[in-house]
Each structure stands twice: as structure tokens, then as C-alpha cells.
Design a protein that fits this description.
Largest sheet of chain A: 2 strands, antiparallel
Number of strands of chain A: 2
Largest sheet of chain B: 11 strands, mixed
Shape of chain B: globular
Strand order of the largest sheet of chain B: 1-3-2-4-6-5-10-11-9-7-8
Structural class of chain B: alpha/beta
Number of strands of chain B: 11
Order of helices and strands of chain A: HHHEE
Radius of gyration of chain B: 21 Å
Oligomer: heterodimer
Number of helices of chain B: 15
Largest interface: A-B, 48 and 60 residues
Number of helices of chain A: 3
Chain lengths: ~90, ~500
């Protein structure tokens, strides 16, 4: 399997610098060859009954303070997060 | 004897009897950190003020006659991917360099409620992706037994802090061996609990179906004490479970236990001294009344491949949230929204994180899903069944924690696949959701600790503690805290 690093990076919303690309490609190739050793297995995935999850009741409760949350935002204004223009 | 040299249980006892005070203990802990931090580099963030305030509070309540949790006043360090309210939590990444969580992880809030003192946040591989603690954006932690060697990862700082006497206890996280491997390399005890035993709320997600918060201490009793304080169901983590807690009353007996020894874990590539130490320890457990039988876990050789497919797939999805919008790093210059995402992620993540995200993206991408992710999930099912079958004929499984002892800094960092192979003995446990514990088991010719891994069926932590304590007693107790001199250790 030949790995197209530029395409993968685009899917993952990453950019790989031109000079880093050959090394990255070689490393990714090695990693994919390693995971390719997985043999095909007949069978179907079944859910483990012991791993059932229960949802907690959906009710309105106090949540975190908006100001506290916005303190971690890279850029905020008037209680909102500032992002580049999305709609022209 | 200095206060920092005591085990957590000794500290708890002396605090409860008011023989020592939490403030006095905390001061000695910080003195020890000051003496050794330049050499071992365990911490990303120290919180002297917060720790001293918690220590004062514990003392005041004890002086007022309150009966407190044994951990009240005992210092516990936290891996830097576990959220602490108001205290920076970086995941050792540039992406979260300035992230200050507005809430505590459940494990942390339970510790705080118990009155534990939190001196700081511990170094790790970036986003817990690594086996040597070398992918941290901030610093490289060093093995206290030989400062030219790695402490193991990803919870490297959690292990170096406990092994060097900077802290009696710490929390780490274990997705494929990230508690057990550094515990083994640093000569301390590390527990990866059963999936669901400890709430993951507030643990920054790497691979959610494999992640578990684990515990480090120098003795089995110390780890049992810490596990007891943080485990149990939590409404904020739907995968957390209620179960019979093992408690802290560990006798240290293996009488009547059957111990399985899987041939696959003693295969080619194991360092001869590691195998010899393990064989001796197994004979010791037999002498204590356990019966030993050979078993087989035939799919072990596929563990690494299945692990890297499943964990990277989940990581690529979990780490999609880091886009420079709501929190975390945002690039300074960008042309538009998509460019902002790409630049923020490319500048914010290190090389190993990018490799894992890209591997995950690849195995989940259209046309490859069945051949990679589908196969890995079927392999997971097969491996889980193999463990289940093995536990029909034995109570515990004993293996090395790692085929080798700690390697030199820089030795493997340029070759990702070689680095991944360090996890060969630990990943299968996460894949099957089982509990496992690593405990010191002798040393190699360079004096580096060897680790023994005990694996049990789900929620058999009590059994692990019993066998581990039996072994620990035979070894004459915990490994002594090594002397640490100067920056390079010479």
C-alpha cells in the first residue's frame, strides 16, 4: 500500500512542510506496513453485553460559566468567539 | 530520615496520629522537588501556593478534631492530561500550552474531596502518544536510576516523580501501557485498572475505548490506597462501572491461586536478564503456595498492529476538536477559516501526534476501513476471547511489563515503529479492557529495574494487589529511592 501523505494531511486538516514530506512519507509507509500484518478474520463484530451503557436523565442543570469558558478562547468579543468570516 | 522518603501509607498514618503535619510534609516535598527537579524534570507546572493552601486546610481540620480520609494532607501529582480546575493542563502540547480548565476531572475532584494535596502537573508524551516521554513539547523527563535513560512513557513524569521521592503518589493514564511501562522502567508500582473502574471525565481523550486513569506508588499498599480513593461509578462517564472495590486491606497471599505464564510473552527479543528475573519471581510465587501453569495467548503477536489501528482511529476523531476556534492554540496568520484550522493544527501539534492522526485518518478512510479498522476490531474480539479462555484455567497471568529495561534518551525517537514495539507486552491488556499491574522484579546488569506485569480478569484488582504484595514482600519491599546527584547524575 502506497501512502499519499499530502492527501491524508488534507483530510486530517494538517499541512506538512515541503522539506518534511519525504521523511513523513517514509515513516507513514513503515507504520502502515506494520499494521498491514493484521490477518483477515472470519466473523462478525458482536456487542459485549457486559459493556452496556446507560444514559443519565436529560434534564436542565447549571452549566459552566460563559466567562470562564471564554477565558480559554483564542479571541472573543461581546461574549462570543471570534472566527474568520465564513459566509460572504 | 526525611519525610519525603516515607510511603504514602506511612505519611497517612503519621498525619492521622498528628505525629507530622501536612504543611511540614508539603514543605519537605517541595524541598525534595527543588533538589531533584533539574535532574529528573518531572513537572510541567508546579503549584506551591495551591498545595500549601490544601495542606493548611488539612491540618486545620485535623486540629479541629475531624476524622479525615487517609489521603488528607498526602501529596498526589497529576499527569498533565487530567483536568485541574484553575491549574494549567497542557497535555505536554503547544496546542494546550495556555489551557486552564474551568473544571476538575472526577478523579481529581475525588482526591480534593479526600483532602489530598496537589503539588503540580506532570510531564508526559504529547497527548499521551509515546513510550519514552520524549515527545513532550516542554521537556524530556529522565530516569532517576540513570539520567541518561528514558523513564518510559507516556506517563513519564508521573513515574519519575514517584521514583525519585518528589511525590509518594501520582495519577497517570494508560491507553496501551502508559502507566505500566514507565512504572517498570523507573522501578515502582503502576496500576492500569479495568476499563470502567475509574471515571474518565476530565481526562483529555486519546482513544476513548482504551483510555484509563492509572495509579503510581512505590508500594502495592500505596497504589491500593490511591485506587480506592478515585475508583467507582460516575454519572459523568457513561462507561464507568460500579463494582466491589478491593479496599485497602491487602494480605499479600497467593495461596491456592493458579498463575498462567503465556509462552508468547517470553518470545525472541526478550532481554535475557528480564526473562531470568521473571522466572525467579514466578518460582517465588510458587513457593508461596501458587500453582503455575503454561498457557497460550496465540494472537499476542498482532496486538501492536491492532492497537495502533484502533487507538489512532479514535485519536484522529478525538483530536479533531483542536481547531483553533474555542480553546487551544490558534495560528497568528491565516487566509481564511480552513487555513486557520490547518495552520493552527500544524503549528500546535508535534510530529508524533500528526503521525497518529494521519494513520487514524488513513485506516478510517473510504475504501480502507474494512481492511484496517474492521480487521483490528475483529482481532480485538478474538484477543478478548483468548484472555477469557485463559482465565478459565488460571486466576492471574504473569508476563514481563516490557521485553527490555529502560533505553537511552534519543535511542529510538527517530524510528516510530521501533518505538511502538516497546508496548508489545502491555497493549493487549487495553485491547481486552483488563486490569494489570507492573511491579519491580529485580535489576539488569546496569542496575536498571525490571518490571513484572500481573494481568487479571475484569475487576480483579484485589487479586492483583494480593499477588503483587506477596511478591513485594519476597523482594524485601519497595526499591530504595536512588541517589540523584547534579544535572547529569554524576
Amino acid at each position: 500500500m502506497k501512502i499519499d501523505v499530502t492527501h491524508l494531511a488534507k483530510l486530517a486538516r494538517l499541512t506538512i512542510d515541503e522539506e518534511e514530506r519525504p521523511r513523513f512519507a517514509a515513516e507513514m509507509q513503515g507504520i502502515v506496513e506494520m499494521v498491514e500484518k493484521l490477518p483477515p478474520i472470519e466473523g462478525k463484530l458482536t456487542a459485549d453485553p457486559a459493556n452496556r451503557m446507560t444514559l443519565r436523565p436529560d434534564r436542565v442543570e447549571p452549566s459552566m460559566r460563559r466567562e470562564a469558558l471564554l477565558e480559554n478562547a483564542p479571541q472573543s468579543e461581546a461574549g462570543c468567539i471570534v472566527v474568520p468570516r465564513v459566509v460572504e | 530520615m526525611r519525610l519525603y522518603e516515607m510511603t504514602a501509607c506511612e505519611m497517612a498514618e503519621k498525619l492521622a496520629s498528628k505525629e507530622i503535619g501536612a504543611v511540614e510534609l508539603c514543605e519537605d516535598i517541595f524541598a525534595r522537588i527543588d533538589e531533584t527537579e533539574e535532574a529528573v524534570a518531572s513537572f510541567i507546572t508546579l503549584d506551591r501556593e495551591g498545595a500549601m493552601a490544601a495542606a493548611h486546610a488539612a491540618d486545620a481540620r485535623r486540629m479541629a478534631g475531624e476524622t479525615l480520609h487517609p489521603l488528607a494532607g498526602v501529596p498526589v501529582g497529576i499527569k498533565d492530561n487530567i483536568c485541574t480546575d484553575g491549574l494549567r493542563t497542557t497535555c505536554a502540547s503547544r496546542m494546550l500550552e495556555n489551557f486552564v480548565p474551568p473544571y476538575d476531572a472526577t478523579a481529581v475532584s475525588r482526591l480534593k474531596k479526600a483532602g489530598a494535596v496537589i503539588p503540580g502537573k506532570l510531564n508526559m508524551d504529547e497527548f499521551a502518544m509515546g513510550s519514552s516521554c520524549e515527545t513532550s513539547y516542554f521537556k524530556k523527563s529522565r530516569n532517576p536510576h540513570d539520567l541518561s535513560r528514558v523513564p518510559g512513557g507516556s506517563s513519564g513524569g508521573s513515574a519519575t516523580a514517584v521514583a525519585s521521592g518528589q511525590l509518594p503518589l501520582s495519577l497517570g493514564s494508560d491507553t496501551g501501557g502508559s502507566v505500566r511501562l514507565p512504572a517498570s522502567y523507573c522501578g515502582i508500582v503502576g496500576l492500569k485498572p479495568t476499563y470502567g473502574a475509574v471515571s474518565r471525565y476530565g481526562l483529555v481523550a486519546f482513544a476513548s475505548s482504551l483510555d484509563q486513569i492509572g495509579q503510581f506508588g512505590r508500594t502495592v499498599d500505596d497504589v491500593a490506597l490511591l485506587f480506592d480513593a478515585v475508583c467507582g461509578p460516575d454519572r459523568l462517564d457513561a462507561t464507568s462501572r460500579s463494582f466491589d472495590k478491593p479496599g485497602r486491606d491487602i494480605e499479600g497471599s497467593v495461596k491456592g491461586m493458579t498463575i498462567g505464564v503465556p509462552a508468547e510473552y517470553f518470545a525472541a527479543g526478550i532481554q535475557p536478564e528480564v526473562e531470568a528475573a521473571l522466572r525467579q519471581a514466578i518460582a517465588g510465587l510458587e513457593a508461596e503456595g501458587a500453582s503455575v501453569r503454561p498457557i497460550s495467548l496465540p494472537s499476542t503477536e498482532y496486538g501492536i498492529a491492532a492497537y495502533y489501528v484502533i487507538s489512532s482511529a479514535e485519536a484522529s476523531s478525538n483530536l479533531a476538536r483542536f481547531d483553533g476556534v474555542r480553546y487551544g492554540y490558534r495560528a497568528k496568520e491565516y487566509a481564511n477559516l480552513v487555513d486557520m484550522y490547518e495552520r493552527s493544527r500544524s503549528e500546535g501539534f508535534g510530529a508524533e501526534v500528526k503521525r497518529r492522526i494521519m494513520l487514524g485518518t488513513f485506516v478510517l478512510s473510504s475504501g480502507y476501513y474494512d481492511a484496517y479498522y474492521g480487521r483490528a476490531k475483529l482481532m480485538q474480539q478474538r484477543m478478548t476471547a483468548e484472555f477469557k479462555e485463559a482465565f478459565e484455567s488460571c486466576d492471574l497471568i504473569v508476563t514481563p511489563t516490557s521485553p527490555t529495561t529502560a533505553f537511552k534518551l534519543g535511542e529510538k525517537i527517530d524510528d516510530p515503529v521501533t518505538m511502538y514495539l516497546n508496548d508489545v507486552c502491555t497493549v493487549c491488556v487495553n485491547i481486552a479492557g483488563l486490569p494489570a499491574l507492573s511491579i519491580p522484579c529485580g535489576r539488569d546488569q546496569n542496575g536498571m529495574p525490571v518490571g513484572m506485569q500481573l494481568i487479571g480478569p475484569k475487576f480483579s484488582e484485589k487479586r492483583l494487589f494480593e499477588a503483587a504484595k506477596c511478591h513485594e514482600r519476597r523482594m524485601g519491599g519497595a526499591l530504595p529511592i536512588p541517589a540523584i546527584c547534579g544535572k547529569e547524575g554524576k
